[in-house]
Amino acid sequence: MKKLEYRCVNIVGEFKHLFKSDKGELNQKVEDSLNDLGRDGWELVAVEGTWFYLKREI
What we know:
Blueprint: E1 4-9, H1 23-39, E2 43-48, E3 51-57
Antiparallel strand pairs: 1-3, 2-3
């Protein structure tokens, strides 16, 4: 049986200063963060508001 670990990340919270400015820049920062996590083996499984839930095999 696979063993998994999980991670909850509030990515958008790291970029609050961008909320009232350029949405394109905010979207790019979120995309870059998710791509970095993906390179580390994390798979996005759910999003709720500004929280991103990920899993990866141990």
